[in-house]
Write a structure and sequence with these properties.
Helix content: 25-40%
Number of domains: 1
Distance between the termini: 13 Å
Number of strands: 4
Structural class: alpha/beta
Strand content: 5-15%
Shape: globular
Radius of gyration: 13 Å
Number of helices: 4
């Protein structure tokens, strides 16, 4: 199972393998304080795409389409994470405030489709 969780939420036993999927380190969290197994920058949106979305140059639908195109170039890394999720829970950690429209949800859907 692949699930998404904000880095600011408490870790739980059900999280399984905890994977930070932001390109930038989350504000206000010390590196030694974040419970995670891996920081996977390669599956995070590019800096340009992230900036366009946050500046509201593109909407979430367009962001999602462009992000999926970026993810398709990282298929091997995606397959590795998808394989991890076959044997245990995988929790994608993100820092975005919006729990309903963020890159981790797009990534989770993409990984589930692999």
């Amino acid at each position: 199972m692949i699930q998404c969780k904000r880095v600011y939420d408490d870790a739980s036993e059900n999280d399984g393998y905890r994977l930070l999927v932001d390109r930038l380190w989350p504000r206000g969290i010390k590196k030694e304080a974040l419970v995670m197994d891996e920081w996977c920058k390669t599956l995070a949106p590019s800096s340009d795409l992230r900036k366009q979305y946050h500046a509201e140059i593109i909407d979430f639908t367009t962001f999602s389409q462009l992000y999926r195109a970026e993810l398709d170039k990282e298929r091997a890394e995606g397959l590795r994470i998808a394989k991890l999720a076959q044997g245990q829970n995988v929790t994608l950690l993100y820092a975005a405030k919006d729990r309903d429209q963020n890159h981790a949800l797009v990534l989770a859907a993409w990984l589930s489709a692999l």
